[in-house]
User: Fold this.
Amino acid sequence: MIMFAEEINNLRNFTKFAIEYLHLEKVEPGVTEELYDTTNDQLHTLAIHVLSLTTKEQLDEINRKWIARGKE
Assistant:
């Protein structure tokens, strides 16, 4: 998957936001470090893994808070 630098940064930032918001570091120790140690190609898979740990309601709440922060 080819992604541009801005898309990669947005995906990495959104994934980090989800990890922090859901306190996933307690459930998946090392996931934050993995976020920065992963290659750009692996980032997509990691983001899907993180989001798969959420419920629909949690994901809706994360999206609302992300948008409220001025990020799209």
About this structure: The chain has five helices and no strands.
